[in-house]
Amino acid sequence: MSAPEPSKTEQRKAEHVNIILKENVSAEYDYWNDVHLVHNALPEIDFDEIDVSTTLFGHRLAAPLVISSMTGGFAGGREINANLAKAAAEVGVAMGVGSQRAALEKPELVPTYAVVKDHDIPLRFANLGAPQLVPQEGKRAYGVDDARRAMEMIDGHVLICHLNFLQEIVQPEGDHRAKGVLDAIRRLSAKFPVMAKETGAGISRGVAQRLKGAGVKGIDVGGLGGTSFSAVEYYRAKKEAIDLKERLGATFWNWGIPTPASIQLASVGLPIVATGGVRSGYHVAKAIVLGASAAGMAKPMLEAAKESAEAVVRELRAVIEELKAAMFLTGSRTVEELAAQTAIVARPTADWLEAAK
Ligand SMILES: Cc1cc2nc3c(=O)[nH]c(=O)nc-3n(C[C@H](O)[C@H](O)[C@H](O)COP(=O)(O)O)c2cc1C
Fold first, then answer.
1. Of 121, 133, 222, 269, which has the most beta carbons under 10 Å away?
2. d(C-alpha 161, C-alpha 198), whole Å
3. pTM higher than 0.70 for the full model?
4. In a mutational test of the pocket of ligand 1, which residue from 20, 65, 68, 154 has the highest number of ligand atoms less than 8 Å from its CB?
């Protein structure tokens, strides 16, 4: 008997992973280069006593790191999630799975996410798209029961509601209704610990305040500077010869609020996760000095997970070593001491902080 045809959602998930691994999908400018930490020529601490452990949403992590929400929902997603989960458990960092809509639609896909339960990950994030929390054309809205199923599917500690309207508007089959999304997030926040997360276009001060008012417990700024979903959808539209969407993808490739600026803008008294273009432990250190509680990495983790769980462990340990080096050179023994350091912010990121307050 031949395997059933993959659904449109499964095909899309596989295409995203393939495009991100093969094509250049990065934003053009690296905003982390605008941020500098002040060197301490007399650190007066020993490298070996540096402690990078931290607490996020009440869970103890060996380092302030999150393997960002990426995948599940197609056959190849299971192995990627298994490799990420094994490494997250071994190193002691947090991990998210990708949007679980696929498994809510098609229960056979549950194992591609639930595989993360085989590993003792200290903090697990479930994931649902915020646009799907309101009724989109011809589709039902997802609600509290769906969120409960998503959380139970992976024994999640925190539910991520991802905001991805840039992607939806460029995506050939995207959802275009945004009315009522904040209220839907409010309803879920009354039942579960929710973290709102952007996926590459950042969170402004005003949006952060509205999310806080809706009861979310944390914000992942998912800012501009790393993987651009406008770019990803550009390649999909190009392949399918959908000219208008290809053009939109190219036009909005670099749209959004840079991650380092968004950390400061979205700091409204909730824990901040800094995702978007984080490529080293030095970037993680900069994020913490700017006000983040932890930093998230997606694409570099995907590349490693395609190879093996060991490759993910190697990447995580290298990032932690870089973070420790930045802590040593700023004289910070703990993550709290690092957070109290000063960052020099140059233009254009400085312009964002000045103009978008
Ligand atoms: C293959 C892939 C799939 C993704 N799918 C999701 C998703 O389902 N939900 C979500 O919140 N973010 C998703 N993201 C966004 C990432 O979590 C992250 O915000 C973004 O890629 C920026 O991080 P990076 O520059 O380190 O890649 C995905 C990213 C990748 C690379």
1. 222
2. 9
3. yes
4. 68
Regarding the beta carbon of 61 and ligand 1, being less than 6 Å apart is answered no
Please give the Cα distance from 32 to 345 (Å, whole number).
9
Q: Is the CB of 222 under 6 A from ligand 1?
A: yes
CA dist list (Å): 49 to 22, 44, 66, 337: 40, 11, 23, 13
Q: Is 312 helix (H, G, I), strand (E, B) or coil?
A: helix
Nearest CA to ligand 1 atom 30: 70
* pLDDT over threshold 80, residue 29: yes
pLDDT tens per residue, range 133-192: 999 999 999 999 999 999 999 999 999 999 999 999 999 889 999 999 999 999 999 999
- Residue 102's identity, in one-letter code, is A
Backbone dihedral region for residue 200 (phi beyond 0: left; psi -120 to 50: alpha; all else: beta): left
Minimal-distance CA residue to ligand 1 atom 25: 226
Report the chain's mean pLDDT, rounded to a whole number. Answer: 96
Geometric angle at alpha carbon 96, from 94 and 101, rounded to 5°: 165
CB distance 98 to ligand 1 below 6 Å: yes
Please tell me whether residue 284 adopts helix, strand or coil conformation.
Answer: helix
Output the CA 199–ligand 1 centroid distance in Å: 6
User: Hey, where are the domains in the chain?
Assistant: 19-355
Q: Are 23 and 233 in contact (CB under 8 A)?
A: no
